[in-house]
Amino acid sequence: MRIASFLPSATEILFAIGAGPNVAAVTFECDFPPEARTCPHVVFSHLPPNLSPAEIDAIVSAEGAKGRSLYFVDLPALTALAPDLIILQDLCRVCAIDSPTLARDMAHLPSQPRVISLNAHSLSAVLAEIELLGDVTNHAAEALMLTTALRARIEAVAISPKPEIKPRVLCLEWLDPPFQGGHWIPEMVTLAGGIPLLATPGEKSRRITWDEILTSAPDIIVVMPCGYHLAETIAQFRALTLPPGWDTLPAVRNGRVYAVDGTAYFSRPGPRLVTGLEILHAILRGDDFARLPPDSVASIA
User: Fold this and answer.
1) Is 201 within 8 Å of 222 (Cβ atoms)?
2) DSSP string, 63-77
3) How far is it, in rounded angstroms, from Cα 301 to Cα 298?
4) Per-residue model confidence as pLDDT tens digits over 132-163
5) Is 196 exposed, middle or buried (0-12, 13-18, 19+ CB in 10 A)?
């Protein structure tokens, strides 16, 4: 079986369940595990490099209003690779490939691949999609072994002692303009022992205002911009012009503002979301971060 993965989380899942040798093509963003970086790239972005978050948001908004996608497939390269299975997503409008064009192009591929679209909005749905990919790639046993281990780790966080007064937690998926973390993020905050602010479990991320942030008065702020690793996140935060009143927030006054590696542990609906849950749990408990993966979290208050 030759598999083309059109999203980084699917690439990660495929390698995690033992289907890595079958991955014939990936996106330019597929960087985990390291072996994935050696696979041919067939999905690219129209975005120019080195844009600021505000510039990216402006382009995303403008192209979205025109019904255009920021991502495209190198169809000749994909055709030459002759995939049997293509995995894509219908979760995020920003990261989605233009659907009508994609449907037309897939229909004309000589290999006539099966196409699976992933759309998980919760941790349980992510685990179900891991098992689905196990079934379709003949790695069902490995997928079940993985999800069993992941469920045990989720349960360990869920049943751990919680503070009597739950902290109010704001997760920022984008900084300029600010967006709250949606989909599985509010669920993760709740499991970790907090109260998610300005977000509803399973709902998409949405743009919020600085006034909403100030009014919500979070006890903890977690900065997790989509598509950025920890060092990039810290740099973005340091360059941000914060609104008047920011220093009065409980999270800021008490030194409870944190940056995390959003790309690795929060943005991609794959196995490492559970590590993200454990990171949130450590943040809320005020644990020593030394036991967490390197370069996964830092205090920035």
Assistant:
1) no
2) HHHTT--SEEE-HHH
3) 9
4) 999 999 999 999 999 999 999 999 999 998 88
5) buried
In tens, the pLDDT along 247-282 reads 999 999 999 999 999 999 999 999 999 999 999 999
Phi, psi of 191 (to 5 degrees): -60, -35
Residue partners of 182: CB distance under 8 A and separation at least 6: 173, 199, 200, 203, 204, 205, 206
Tokens of 250: 């409980």
**What is the rounded distance in angstroms from the CA atom of residue 24 to the CA atom of residue 35?**
12
Establish how many alpha carbons lie within 13 A of residue 239's alpha carbon, considering only the half-sphere containing its beta carbon: 11
The pTM of the whole model exceeds 0.90: yes
Give the 3-state secondary structure percentages of the chain, helix then strand then coil, rounded to 5.
Answer: 45, 15, 40
Angle (CA) 269-45-109 rounded to 5° is 85
Q: What is the pLDDT of residues 60-98, one digit of tens each?
A: 888 777 767 778 889 999 999 999 999 988 755 555 665
Distance CA 114, CA 273 (A): 27
| Residue spans of alpha helices (H) in 30-166 | 53-65, 75-81, 99-107, 123-136, 140-158
Distance (Å, whole) CA 43 – CA 26: 7
Q: What is the pLDDT of residues 189-245, one digit of tens each?
A: 999 999 999 998 888 889 999 999 999 999 999 999 998 999 999 999 999 999 999
Mean pLDDT of 93-104: 61
Residue 236 and residue 209: Cα distance in Å, rounded?
Answer: 18
Euclidean distance between CA atoms 270 and 254, whole angstroms: 33
Q: How many CB atoms lie within 10 A of CB 14?
A: 28
The runs of H, that is alpha helices, within the chain are 8-16, 53-65, 75-81, 99-107, 123-136, 140-158, 185-192, 210-216, 230-239, 250-253, 262, 273-285
Asked if 159 and 151 touch (Cβ cutoff 8 Å), the reply is no
Average pLDDT score over the chain: 92
